[in-house]
Amino acid sequence: MRVFIILFFALCSLYVVNAQYSMSNQIVSDCEGTLTDSELNILEPGWYSHDENFNFTICPSNALSIIINFTSFLTEPINDYVIIYDGPDNTYPILAGPFSGTSLPPQIVSSGCVTIQFVSDLNVAEEGFELSWETIISTPQSPTISLLNQPPI
Fold first, then answer.
1. Close Cβ partners of 75 (under 8 Å, ≥ 6 residues apart)
2. How many CB atoms lie within 10 A of CB 134?
3. What is the pLDDT of residues 46-59, one digit of tens each?
């Protein structure tokens, strides 16, 4: 019994951990997660690299809104930036940004899917950024259950 309880809590803890991603061209449907810059810089491990242009889309099913909070932010001012679009790709309206430099962006709230674009130039690279997100989803409608009338016995 003790082994079962330990196994149960170990499996449950796997579902509590947020998804963790590095900036790249991809679409995810996680309701919560963490995104960092690409960390592809060979000379400065943990920093983003030169000449990047990535679009990272967050699009969970039934999302009413996605709340984004930056926890760190440092890019080359003006030339390296983050833009957040209010939709599943970068053709949708800009929701926030461009952000660059050292100022931590404010909390950002979307009306559904978001696309985060990161662009860097050929010159200076920096430590980059980290953000987390959480999703407010619509509550599914409860099913209507009706019992069939049974004839009296």
1. 48, 81, 82, 99, 100, 101, 120, 126, 128, 129
2. 15
3. 899 999 999 999 99
